[in-house]
Amino acid sequence: MELQANPQLLWFIGIYALIMVGVGIYMSKKVSNSTDFILAGKSLGPFVLMGTLLATWTGSGSISGGETSVAYSFGIIPSLMLMLPTLIGILILYVIAPKIRAFGKYTISGILEAKYGTSARNLSSIIVLLAYVGIVSYQMVGFGFILNLTTGISVELGTIISAVLIIFLAMIGGLRSVSQTDAISGFLMVGGLLITVPVIISIAGGWDSIVANVPDSHMTATGGLTTIQLIGYLLPSLFLLLGDQNMYQRLAASKGDKSAKKAQLGWLLIMLIISPAISIIAFTSRSLFPDIDPGMALMATTLALPLGIGGILLAAAAAFIITTGNSYLLSAATNMTYDIYGKYINKNASDKKKLVMTKVFIVLLGALSYLLISYFPTVLEVQMYSYTVYGAGITPAILAVFFWKRVTAIGGLSSMVTGVVTTLLWELVLGKPFDLNSVVISVPAAIIVLVAVSLATQKKNK
């Protein structure tokens, strides 16, 4: 089957975009201070919180990278395995959510500073920027794929349009508006995926026909990957989720611990539905469209579906991509305002000034995200890089705050440096030797250094 643009699908994207902009403008009128903008006034109930957790986590990383690219490139079983790190991460966050709320910090950097000192705060701010700018960048190109499919315009022009929309929605109302659009998008995606799975399998001729049309390796446990290569795809999402500032901010923005717990349980249950659905649709796409970019696998099926169903799926995919992009952009801008501008440039900045500067940083970081995507050949590659920079640089140190009383300031800081430096060396300097994602090197190194240095400095710390 050949890919042919269907401009009629653009109506579904346009309607979705108008709804999101309308909600964003309406909710922006309720923003009166920085707490409203960054933590939604700590007013999120379980339903909205569940939706924003779901939509923030499941973006272009799943729609264009993650489950989609792995299912298309390696097979259904490795793709289904990508669900496990998310489920494990949600359960661990469920345990530490009350502690996250107790800290009452705007950023991860604030928590790390409380435990490890100012140097840890500064370093973590840099790590957040390195990772989140990368994450925002592949949301932009993911939406570019959607516009390419629907209108035939180039992915490059589609990416520019995406960048403008993501930046606007993040800037207009902060988390107060983002959380609402996230909730709408999350439940739109669930509906779109549930409708699509049985229909696309039928169009492809049934499961037996799908299996017959994919390489034999796509039905094996590892899809032709070595075990360590497969681990290299599984670990980045786990370690990003466990220390993800977006998730921490949303949990801190809930009405209370009960709301947070209900929302996380709902998030867990929905992931059990949508993650396998994404894998199955992308795997079916491998049978229908054997020669396309892996990042377009899920979205390409919209051209084979009946117009109404294809339009709903495409709008749902756009929903997750846009909401994830503006969430990570808002989070990175928060770091710039509170950890850099407020600490070193204008220590006496008023709340109003911080609110204005957060919006300015959203625009600047959004532009930087757009420029970054040109350095990575695929969505999956920039996804693995971004996840690992963050997961290795921050997660071991942040989890130690909650789970290991013997960790020392020098131990935590050394772990952060080790995680980032090892990732950058492996990915950018050495060029990813043996085709292994850096997570299999940098995360173990960061954990070993955390434990070893903390134990070696126990007496000094006391």
Automatic annotation (TrEMBL):
Q: Does the keyword Magnesium apply?
A: no
GO CC, one annotated term:
plasma membrane
Transmembrane ranges? 6-27, 39-58, 70-96, 126-147, 153-175, 187-207, 219-242, 263-284, 296-322, 360-378, 384-403, 410-430, 436-456
Keyword presence, Metal-binding? no
PROSITE patterns according to UniProt: NA_SOLUT_SYMP_3
Its subcellular locations are: Membrane
Q: How is this protein situated with respect to the membrane?
A: Multi-pass membrane protein
What's in the keyword line of the UniProt record?
Membrane, Transmembrane, Transmembrane helix, Transport
The record's section on Gene3D superfamilies has: Sodium/glucose cotransporter
The cross-references to InterPro entries, in alphabetical order and at most eight, read: Na/Glc_symporter_sf, Na/solute_symporter, Sodium:Solute_Symporter
Alphabetically, the GO molecular function entries are:
transmembrane transporter activity
Q: Pfam families, from UniProt?
A: SSF
Which family would the database say this protein is a member of?
Answer: Belongs to the sodium:solute symporter (SSF) (TC 2.A.21) family.
Task: Return the protein name.
Answer: Sodium:proline symporter
